[in-house]
Amino acid sequence: MIDMVKSELLKYKRTFMRKLIVFAPLFFVLYAIPQKLYIPADFIHPWYLLIDLVYNWWPVIFIPLGMALFAALIESQEKKAGNYRGLRAHNISPASIWISKIIVMAGHTFLTTIVLIIAILLCGFITAGGTIPWLELFAGAFVIWLVSLPLIPIQLCAATWKGTFFSMAIGFIGLIAGVLAAPKSYWLYVPWSWATRLMCPIIGVHPNGTLLSASDPLRDISVIPKGIMMSVVVFILFTMITSVWFTGREVK
Known about the structure:
Layout: H1 2-11, H2 16-37, H3 46-80, H4 85-89, H5 94-127, H6 134-147, H7 151-162, H8 164-181, H9 194-203, H10 223-251
Helix pairs in contact: 1-5, 2-3, 2-5, 3-5, 3-6, 3-7, 3-8, 3-9, 5-6, 5-10, 6-9, 7-8, 7-10, 9-10
């Protein structure tokens, strides 16, 4: 499996995927700075304001659309590399290929999360000042990454099955569904809403971008372990289901 992952990583060397790891976090951080400048200085602690703005938009926009784009780029690169013809020429397990792609995509999104944290820190040192809320900074970033993992096999399956347009369409539908479901009681049944919903108690911001009062039900921290446990289970389940689908598709 390690060799398969290394092989997958080589395919994406010097591709747009590597640039997306850096450009996507920088875009959202730079987008938050102008908004921050128009808000009164005494409205909220500058660091919290910056983190709230970034972590509100990041799961709403990048997670659904970014995952869809990552998956589409992986499938596009696979077509350039031979469109799985190597499976027929060598004794390679299709399931291993599929799981290695999921691992690589999870790794890329993890690196994107690291870049996001660094970008927030750099911009915060320039525009915020004061005490850094380390807990919100790291908890928000890594919780978003963790609970978004189930979207990887979903989007990879969509891109492999029907191509880039279908993958992006699923991502756009997921964006809308996630925003609508996040503040509702049925949020747990919509994977695209998990990151947005869990940010409510972590950063204290409603999915629509407004600050939550201390007594707001959306601040209930019990959703955090519930969402994390659900995401891990669903990620493993979706990975197994899609690997079986991919194996059947490639051996035909």
